[in-house]
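Why does this matter for the project? Reviewers at the last site visit asked to see concrete outputs rather than summary tables. In response, this paragraph embeds two records directly. Each consists of the residue sequence and, immediately after it, the corresponding structure tokens. Nothing has been edited or filtered.
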Amino acid sequence: MTAVIRLSLSFVLTLLIAVSGFGIGPAFAADLANGAQVFAANCNACHAGGNNYVNAAKSLRKGDLEKYDMASIEAIKNQVTNGKLAMPAFGGKLSAEEIENVAAYVLDQAEKGW
């Protein structure tokens, strides 16, 4: 009976670890509603409607994101965090979670066509 209990506990623990990912993967899932709020408060002045009012060729539309290798969460997070050229860095202003959320929001909107 003890061997059966040990085997059952071992199975349950293994299952829990597999289901939880044991800490592997993102620390949080993207919150698109929060991403929309972050975008409205920080990005909208230059990127309203997915446009780029500083450099029109580099909009947030799907085709432009793909053309400039920005069509991934990681690329957008890097751009938002560190800035580049005319875009300021927001790494000191926004939390990692806010940056993750706004990156997911941008990709989601690009897929929808803004």
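We now turn to the second protein, recorded in exactly the same manner.
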Amino acid sequence: ASVDALHDALMATVEAATDDEKLGLIQAHPDLVGRAARAGTLTAESSREQASAGLGDLTDDEVVAFDHFNGAYRERFGFPFVLCAREHKKASILTAFPIRLRHNRAEEIATALGEIGKIARFRLTDLLADAR
């Protein structure tokens, strides 16, 4: 009926998923400025989103910082750091890493799923706008 209704239905499906299914959804996301981004193998959507946050224009020191934080985050939680890049720039993302690294695993699973919801909302809006 609407983008809102579709998004709500998708989020209800995520909410009803098993813990393993939720983790699988989170684990399907690429690292920000990770190997896939540097190899040029991200989806077109992920590439645009990361570029919109300024992640395609990083200094060597910023790349090192992203690698460090991505590694620390994966080691602590067992899944990639997920953040809706469209709502951020590289500085705010680098600021978010150490804050979120202080969370416990359950908090980060909930946060990652919330960020995935935001990403889905943007992508649904784009997809439906392109279809018109």
